[in-house]
Design goal:
By secondary structure, the chain is mainly alpha-helical. It is built from 1 helix and no strands.
């Protein structure tokens, strides 16, 4: 009985850890994308309109 409970606990930890990892990965990718957009926007503000940089 204790061995079965131990295996169930390990499976629970693996499931919880993998879902947590996937959520954090999605958040990291979203934040990275937002940072890239903001960086391009700030760079584009340095140049006048109609130049080679457009966002």
């Amino acid at each position: 009985m204790n061995l079965e409970a131990g295996f169930r606990f390990i499976i629970l930890l693996l499931l919880f850890g993998s879902t947590n990892y996937l959520m954090m990965l999605k958040r990291y990718e979203n934040d990275l994308n937002k940072r890239l957009v903001m960086q391009k926007k700030r760079i584009a503000e340095l140049y006048p309109k109609g130049t080679f940089i457009s966002v």
